[in-house]
Amino acid sequence: xxxxxxxxxxxxxxxxxxxxxxTKSHHAALSGIMIKAEAEGLEIIxxxxxxxxxxxxxxxxxxxxxxxxxxxxxxxxFSKYVSEVVKKLPEDIHFTLKxxxxxxxxxxxxxxxxxxxxxxxxxxxxxxxxxxSIKMNGKSLLEMFVQTAFAAAKTNSRPVLSGVLxxxxxxxLTVGATNSNRLAVRKMPFDKVGQRxxxxxxxxxxxFIKLMGTDSEDVLIHFSDRxxxxxNQYISxxxxxxxxxxxxxxxxxxxxxxxEITMDRERLRQxxxxxxxxxxxxxxxxISLSVKEGSLLKITSHSNEIGKIEESxxxxxxxxxxxxxxxxxxxxxxxxxxxxxxxxxxxxxxxxMKPILIRPTDTENQMHIISPVRVK
Amino acid sequence: xxxxxxxxxxxxxxxxxxxxxxTKSHHAALSGIMIKAEAEGLEIIxxxxxxxxxxxxxxxxxxxxxxxxxxxxxxxxFSKYVSEVVKKLPEDIHFTLKxxxxxxxxxxxxxxxxxxxxxxxxxxxxxxxxxxSIKMNGKSLLEMFVQTAFAAAKTNSRPVLSGVLxxxxxxxLTVGATNSNRLAVRKMPFDKVGQRxxxxxxxxxxxFIKLMGTDSEDVLIHFSDRxxxxxNQYISxxxxxxxxxxxxxxxxxxxxxxxEITMDRERLRQxxxxxxxxxxxxxxxxISLSVKEGSLLKITSHSNEIGKIEESxxxxxxxxxxxxxxxxxxxxxxxxxxxxxxxxxxxxxxxxMKPILIRPTDTENQMHIISPVRVK
Lengths: 376, 376
What we know:
Two copies of one chain form a homodimer. Chain A is α+β, with helices and mostly antiparallel strands. Helix content of chain A is about 20%, strand content about 45%. Chain A contains seven helices and 26 strands. Chain A has helices spanning about 5-20, 80-85, 140-145, 200-210, 250, 265-280, 330-340, and strands spanning about 1-5, 30-40, 40-45, 50-60, 60, 65, 65-70, 75-80, 95-100, 100-105, 110-115, 130-135, 165-180, 180-200, 220-225, 225-230, 235-240, 260-265, 285-290, 295-305, 305-315, 315-320, 325-330, 345-350, 355-360, 365-370. In chain A, the strands form four sheets. In chain A, strands 7-1-9-10-11-8-2-3-4-17-16-15-12 form a 13-stranded antiparallel β-sheet. In chain A, strands 13-14-26-25-24-18-22 form a seven-stranded antiparallel β-sheet. A four-stranded antiparallel β-sheet of chain A has the order 21-20-19-23. In chain A, strand 3 (about 40-45) and strand 4 (about 50-60) form a beta hairpin. Chain A starts with a strand and ends in a 6-residue tail after the last strand. The interface of A and B includes residues 112 and 277 of A. Strand 11 (about 110-115) of chain A pairs antiparallel with strand 21 (about 305-315) of chain B, so a sheet runs across the interface.
């Protein structure tokens, strides 16, 4: 194998593929990335136990030549070192596989000789037959993930909850995540009719957010029984799915509000963040939201040792009863208010010990549900 | 005590004073800051076991009124919470000490009631009689500290080496730091004749760098036997000194180079950083510098497991012998090359197992000395 490649293009590709490869592993090749050179371009592949990223570097990008393949071949290299050295190289990179055990990377006056691994040890995912594919705008999918993934469980006590549900049901695409104390849901009307769902590990969703969300290209999504593949022109991300049954989202959405109020989202978020300073002293980051007479929302938190923060914010409009007080986790409320981009939010109260629901005032396509904290 | 203060000015002052106050302490008041309100302004004071920061907020800054003191007094508050809440407040702050045990901070619709500590417990430093003071430009002192403090010892095995030496000897001011394997020295001609030295804890030097270096105001430095005070118009920083005898700096500077070479500083720094990727695998981050025939400097590092990086850089000029090879800690060399701002550096070699000396080509007021690493 031998090729000459543009420094910036190669460094970016190696970085993107290496990022989630484990740097320490009991089996050396698990810390490797594979580089393949073929007439049509390079392919760089990295894996961990859950996901695989493949990046292609074409011969040309736009009108400029970025790659010249002199000899086809492939090699597995220690990802950490190839990534760290390559990003520091001064100019175009001349890459040569000398025999199966070592490569040379030359850039200007710099020569990096590196040991290579046996290719056979590289733990590539097997391709699985996909029997269902959809196509959608990459930025829309990114937004759906960003607005929900944070709500997935951080612990593994119920494996399905450490995943993000992606479900196509008739002509609605739903993405949702819950840790059983909060739930975030995004829906989108979809032009393809079908019935399919997948529980995607939250780490893979976060990798998607970093890798594929920045360009507005379409993303192809291939569902199969145990994997899902996200793919655009130059990158593909394959992830194993979490097996099991995800809780029925419809069943988690409270019905029958006794009061609804509309608030300025950013102002409320700032108020919640202020109250959170004391709330973080308590186990559940408890703050209390109280409505009295329907015109002011009072946000309160207190700590016996430190003191009490209290502020009142104007309610923009309200419906239903005029008095209620609910205690919630300030971090959950803050996350929900950050996920929403719209200026105004509606908060629905179902009762003192019932979950609250937060959504933009002008759409039901996004919902955040937070269970109350029991205050002693 | 009662005052109304501009939000940004108060938040910045509280942040600067709180930063080095310990957040957890067996004695609650040690995590506190003291706020004093007097006719001429506010004074905010924070301490840890080594240093004390005092910040003044005047009634006016330039032409704008920033403070209105309604009632004099003082109070000790839990620094972490007052700092975190104050920075999140929306507008001017109305601060009231209600009795000796609680204060109220009001800003717009936000009311923060906070417990206060008994003032008597606050661990202020005692003022000590200074018998020697000098005045110098704040930015110059900052530069002297930035270019040397990194070389101080990170461990405490010899307490004096975890300090930075500041010495006025006749009409030269010297700042230096060493961990016994490397030394960084800055000198400056000084218009005051005198003989005085102090070993300043590196944590205090780093606090000075954060607090006082940004404005070009003059800094007054008051030496006393066990403390040193740095002071400008609004801030003072008092630090305990490290007791003991600092190594004689003159004795650490090698004499009698067998070869001197001149290099492009930034290019060399980049080369050292590249080689460091593999060097970091070895205990002493060993890289090797070799000169052959006086025209090229070869920078090499290697790891049996990973491979070898090698590059050659043009020597701009040389004096003395034409061949040598020395192994040094790449991190030390990189730090020295970052500390120097000039475009060209001179490296003096004393011999294979002798320290190397790096300095800007056009001044002897800055020197970095690095001991060689013994390679097995």
